[in-house]
Specification:
Layout: H1 4-12, H2 14-27, H3 34-44, E1 65-74, E2 78-79, E3 85-93, E4 96-103, H4 105-108, E5 118-127, E6 130-133, E7 138-143, E8 147-148, E9 156-171, E10 174-180, E11 185-190, E12 205-213, E13 217-220, E14 225-229, E15 235-245, E16 249-254, E17 257-262, H5 263-269, H6 281-291, E18 296-304, E19 307-315
Parallel strand pairs: 4-6, 8-9, 11-13
Antiparallel strand pairs: 1-3, 1-5, 2-3, 3-4, 5-6, 5-7, 9-10, 9-12, 10-11, 12-13, 12-14, 15-16, 15-18, 16-17, 18-19
Helix pairs in contact: 1-2, 1-3, 2-3
Length: 316
C-alpha cells in the first residue's frame, strides 16, 4: 500500500503535512481517517501517478476516470437557458473512442484544441456514456498535432496550413480550392458540407484539420475542420525573431518585419500587470519575449509616421 503521508511530507515537510492533514479532516467534519485525508491531498497536488484506462474498458457510472488519446472530432458549443454552456470533443485511442464534455469556463479551452492533438484526462466521471470533466477533473495537453505545408504533405490523415491561392468553387456536391506555402500548391476538396468553403477568399490563411492526402488532393470529410484566418492589410503573422524593450517603447522583428509597441501595452499583452511596481517591467518583458523567440505571432497594427504600431498582439 502506498504511503500517502510520506508523499506529501516529501513535498511540504512533516510539520506542514500534519497541518494539511488535520485541516482536511476538519473540513470533512472529522469523518476522514488520516490515511484518507493524506490520499486526498496527494491527489490534489498531483503526487499520485494515475494509470490511464483504455477507452474500451470504461464502464458507465465510473468515477475518477483517467484516459489518454488523440482528438478525433470537435463539436460546437451548446448553450442552455440556465446560462450554463458545454462543449464536447471525441477522444480516441487504439481500443475505441469516447465523447468528452467540458462545462462553462472549461468549455472555452476547446478553442485552442486541434484535431490530432494528444490529450490526457484526469478525474472525469461517466454519465450516459459521456466522460464529463467536473471541478475535480483536469484536461492536459500531451502534444500538439503537426501542421504540414503543401511542400511537406505525406499520404494519410494530415493537418495542413496554407494560403488560399485559387478557388474553383462548387462542382456537383464538392467545393474545390487550392492552397500554397509559396513554394508548392495543393488542391483541396470539401466533400462534407461543401458550403463551408463559401466563406474563404483568395489570400486567406486556412487550417485544414483531419484531411486525407492521397498524393494529389486534400479531401475533407465528415470529421475534418476548416479554420479560416481572414486576410487583412493590417494583420501580420510570422515567427517572433527578435525584440528590444526600452523604458517607454519596444521594437519587435516578426517574420522579417519591424514593429513598435508601447511598453505599457506590451506589459498588458504579456499579462505582466500583476508584477510589483518596484520590479523593472521592461527587463522582465524583455526576458519573457526572449524565451518566446520562434513562437508564432499575430499582430494587429496601424501605420503612423512611417512606423508599424502594434495595437493587438498574440503569441503561441
Amino acid at each position: 500500500m502506498e504511503d500517502y503521508f510520506s508523499l506529501i511530507s516529501g513535498k511540504f515537510g512533516k510539520e506542514e503535512a500534519d497541518r494539511k492533514v488535520d485541516a482536511k479532516i476538519s473540513s470533512f467534519s472529522g469523518l476522514l481517517t488520516r490515511e484518507a485525508a493524506a490520499k486526498l491531498i496527494a491527489a490534489e497536488e498531483g503526487l499520485i501517478k494515475e494509470e490511464a484506462l483504455q477507452i474500451s474498458g470504461i464502464k458507465d457510472g465510473a468515477r475518477d476516470v483517467s484516459v489518454k488519446g488523440k482528438i478525433k472530432k470537435i463539436l460546437p458549443m451548446n448553450e442552455y437557458r440556465t446560462g450554463k454552456r458545454s462543449r464536447s470533443f471525441v477522444l480516441k485511442d487504439e481500443t475505441g473512442e469516447i465523447e468528452i464534455k467540458l462545462w462553462n469556463e472549461d468549455a472555452d479551452s476547446i478553442r485552442g484544441f486541434h484535431l490530432g492533438d494528444r490529450i490526457s484526462i484526469r478525474n472525469g466521471y461517466i454519465r450516459d456514456g459521456i466522460l464529463n470533466i467536473g471541478y475535480k477533473g483536469k484536461v492536459e495537453m500531451e502534444g500538439r498535432e503537426e501542421f504540414l505545408s503543401p511542400s511537406t504533405l505525406k499520404e494519410g490523415t494530415v493537418s495542413c496550413r496554407g494560403e488560399v491561392s485559387s478557388i474553383a468553387g462548387m462542382g456537383g456536391e464538392e467545393f474545390t480550392f487550392s492552397i500554397t506555402d509559396g513554394q508548392k500548391e495543393a488542391q483541396a476538396c470539401i466533400t462534407h458540407i461543401p458550403t463551408r468553403g463559401e466563406r474563404i477568399a483568395v489570400g486567406d490563411t486556412v487550417l485544414l484539420e483531419g484531411a486525407e492526402w492521397d498524393g494529389k488532393e486534400l479531401r475533407m470529410g465528415e470529421h475534418s475542420r476548416l479554420l479560416v484566418k481572414k486576410n487583412s492589410p493590417d494583420i501580420f503573422r510570422g515567427p517572433l525573431e527578435a525584440a528590444e524593450v526600452g523604458p517607454e517603447s519596444a521594437s519587435m522583428t516578426v517574420g522579417g518585419q519591424e514593429f513598435s509597441v508601447n511598453t505599457a501595452d506590451l506589459v498588458k499583452f504579456l499579462k505582466l500587470e500583476g508584477l510589483k511596481k518596484d520590479i523593472d517591467l521592461p527587463s522582465v518583458a524583455g526576458i519573457k519575449l526572449d524565451g518566446m523567440k520562434g513562437m508564432g505571432a499575430t499582430i494587429l497594427f496601424e501605420e503612423r509616421e512611417g512606423k508599424r504600431l502594434v495595437k493587438e498582439l498574440s503569441l503561441r
